[in-house]
Design the sequence.
């Protein structure tokens, strides 16, 4: 039997240990690597090329959203299953928009997590029931970016290039204070918490030109 090769990316060693012990008891799954933060997780994933990357969200050095974006940029075929304690809207949408194939909660049963890993390995979506309800409700909302002004769209495009506030101010010949105000307005209008989430939204909704990606 060909086993599903998995790596675990979570900053809590006890979580990794418990999950590894359970998964390695399954006849069709094998944990072949692990990492304690998002940045290390990318390195391990690119080295081992597992069938499934099980990814936590809140981690030091690089969070799960950033790690998902960075890993898929380097390895578009990567299959990422988020396993987190968070059911908050601001955690769910960015990582799903970033390209994760699944989103499960650490409160899910062992059998549910195992089934999610199997589904993601086949290229199927695996979304916890409560998370799925939130995603469907979110998708039914009108596009939030319709309220962005032309200037805010310009600044969002520069955020997508990785520019900091001062560089944006210099590029657009406006004050640093004005840039900060525009960035705050962008985050509020897109209903996101930080610049990374705003950039994820921009790519998801094709607000950034191809040569800016």
Sequence:
């Amino acid at each position: 039997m060909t086993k599903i090769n998995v790596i675990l990316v979570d900053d809590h060693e006890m979580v990794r240990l418990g999950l590894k012990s359970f998964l390695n008891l399954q006849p069709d799954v094998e944990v072949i690597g692990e990492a304690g933060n998002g940045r290390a997780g990318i390195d391990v994933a690119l080295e081992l090329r597992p069938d499934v990357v099980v990814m936590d969200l809140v981690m030091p050095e690089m969070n799960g959203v950033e790690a998902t974006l960075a890993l898929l940029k380097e390895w578009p075929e990567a299959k990422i299953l988020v396993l987190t304690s968070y059911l908050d809207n601001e955690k769910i949408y960015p990582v799903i928009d970033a390209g994760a194939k699944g989103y499960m909660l650490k409160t899910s049963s062992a059998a549910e997590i195992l089934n999610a890993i199997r589904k993601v390995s086949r290229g199927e979506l695996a979304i916890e029931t409560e998370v799925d309800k939130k995603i469907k409700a979110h998708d039914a909302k009108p596009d939030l970016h319709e309220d962005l002004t032309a200037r805010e769209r310009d600044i969002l495009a520069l955020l997508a290039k990785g520019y900091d506030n001062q560089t944006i101010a210099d590029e657009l010949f406006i004050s640093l204070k004005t840039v900060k105000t525009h960035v705050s307005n962008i985050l509020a209008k897109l209903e996101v918490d930080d610049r990374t989430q705003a950039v994820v939204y921009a790519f998801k909704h094709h607000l950034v030109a191809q040569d800016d990606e």
